[in-house]
Amino acid sequence: MNFGFTEEQDLLRQEVRKFLDASAPMEQVRKIADPPEGFSRALWKQMGELGWLGLTIPEAHGGAGLGMVDLVVVLEETGRTLFPSPLLATTLAASAIRDAGSEAQQARWLPRLADGSAIGTVAVEEAGAAPDLAGVQLAGRRDGDGWRLTGEKVGVLDGAVADLLVVAFRTGAGPGDVALGLIERGAAGLVVESTPSIDATRRVARVRCDGVRVADDALLGAAGAAAPALARLLDQAAAAVTAETIGAAEGALRLTVDYARERVQFGSPIGRFQGVKHPLAEMYVDVESFKSLLYYAAWCLDHGEPEAARFVSMAKAYAGEAYARIGIDGVQLHGGVGYTWEYDVQLHLKRSKWARAAFGDPDHHYDRVARLRTEAR
Amino acid sequence: MDFQLTPEEEAFRAEVRAFLDEMLPPGTNTADPTFLAEWQRRVREKRWVGFSWPREVGGGGGSIMQQVILKEEMAKRKAPPLGACYMGLAWVGPAIIQYGSEAQKQRFIPDILDGKYQWCTGYSEPGSGSDLASLQCRAVRDGDVYVVNGQKIWTSIAMWSKWIILLVRTGPPGVDNKHEGITCLLVEMDTPGITVRPIRNMAGGAMFAEVFFDDVRVPVENRLGEEGQGWQVTVSALAHERSSIAEVEGLLRRLDELVELAKTSVKNGRPVLEDDGVRRRIARFETRIQAMRMNGMRFLTRQLKGEPLGAETSINKLHRAELEVEMGDLALEIQGGAGHLEKEVDGGRWQRFALSWPEVVIGGGTPNIQRNIIAERVLGLPKD
């Protein structure tokens, strides 16, 4: 029994933290997040060289061949300073191709995603729909040896800079009739529009398909049979967002604890007062707890454990709630300066709004936990 | 990460399961006195009573992982307790094993293991609850005896106990260390001058009592540890596992019962369990319970590596406090207008549950005390 990280994983964490401390401390983050692209191509290239972009890509395709637990380590660290980069998006696209793509698709895309020469993303969510199988409504119409896609995706991570999109669409009226198609930047009929977020460190886009053509050999698996691959992708996405949220929430807690130790009122650091101390203790309880759930969920994903879905949803629901609370309490405990653009704690409040909703809000995931419990009986 | 058990651990789990299969066939009445006597004899024979204690004092010498496995399997099967001397096994025995004289060990440990009589713990006082170190119950040395005067409160099962482990003041608190001047005594409850007055709790029962000491004479040989060492004596504990596994299994079972209640209760013509709000609250409970389990596994990993566990175990205490309160509350809410009736649904078991949480929520440190502990010892915020 060992619910801890290996020495290699601890080293990986140190390496990532050192890199980010040196290249992208919090004061740099806002500069990096500046328009137009919202991330640093130079740092992106270095991350590729360090092997972090290909962490979960098989060695045969230029990656490190590691798993979700290893990815969690990296995402926690990039989350800690809200480091802006298409790492999350690219990793998810790579995972979908790794898990469901043909040998040819893997050989074509994985090496480029691993070294950073291509940026990938996934387009699943649609306006007004839940991020799940039933919510995929973007229509595919049969067209010779391929499909014509018409419809719109929203909240596509780093869509504006993506070279490759994994798009979920409907191939028929049956509940499971969905496909995952690979669409390249610049494809005819593809309109990508950046949708500015209140959180400048996170870029999302609206993606419209006006008759975009996807050939059969650009589908991940067979048409109409992608439901299991989509379910897996959504679990990986929810887990990855939660991993980032661990680091982010710890970052917000650290900022607020430091402030509470330094700020003096009524002749004492405010961190001595229980009205300040107790919410901070609650933050710690919550972060440690959804962290434990997520670690186990990641291990389950790596080992094909049937409990994976339940634990991903528990972790995501808890994290979404807790980080939102931490964002609000963090700003409040900072008092007036928490409201200023200058202080960093407000960045967490903004990020928490994204993290709570991304790939399913707490209600969505609690509903799933309740359903999986009933089904398990 | 690796959640596999070693072959030896698997073998131990199989041994526990086989024993439970044999002892607890379906339909066993675990409240039957004849069964219970046989159960206690058998588990004592297997050395599962005092399983974490060293073998040389009569314990089981169980490793941390074996303790976890045993507790988990027992809890899953709703097995009766291992041993009958609850406070003795939990608190008194470990203190005697670590600080007791040879004579004290021989006198008390076998009786605790055999469950011959009950022990109670005299720690809290009317004026010393969360701030326990401020205790005032006084012992003055008079030749070969200490003369004890003062009062204890919240003493669980005092009315049925033969002995009490008592914290008394034998000197003033230190300037820097308020834990100085406290001494631990072992006192027989029928000593002249002791009066026990049960306290009725809000559920109507009386499990704890006030205990008054009026010139109670205690032989010096019944002092546990040195004079002034009382605080260490009682906070020390043997290396028992800290995975929360027994609490988690108990809460999961309670959750199953709550789901069953929601399934069989009807509101507006349909089962309450179909209500989205109720479903989400139950899912939230499950999430917190599983978080406790996984937190516990992380604590356990650190314990197995020999790292010290400190204030972080307060995390699970806070979760449990919240769960005990909220699960009982939801149960009564599900029952609607009958929620406040004493015995209308399920013989009143949910009402008893909803009125009993203070035992675990307040006993052993209130939630706000746990938050102070985390804030000061983990987050490094200044002390009050």
User: What is the CATH-assigned architecture of the largest domain in chain B?
Assistant: Up-down Bundle
End-to-end distance of chain B = 39 Å
Oligomer: heterodimer
Please name the fourth-level CATH homologous superfamily of the largest domain in chain A: Butyryl-CoA Dehydrogenase, subunit A, domain 3
The total count of strands of chain B amounts to 10
- The CATH homologous superfamily of the largest domain in chain B: Butyryl-CoA Dehydrogenase, subunit A, domain 3
Instruction: Provide the domain count of chain A.
Output: 3
The order of strands across the largest sheet of chain A is 2-3-7-6
Order of helices and strands of chain B: HHHHHEEEEEEEEHHEEHHHHH
Side by side, the strands of the main sheet of chain B go 1-4-5-8
Give the CA-CA distance, first to last residue of chain A. Answer: 27 Å
Q: Give the structural class of chain B.
A: alpha+beta
| Number of helical regions of chain A | 11
Main sheet of chain A, how many strands, which sense, barrel? 4 strands, antiparallel
- Counting DSSP H or I runs of 4 or more residues, the number of helices of chain B is 12
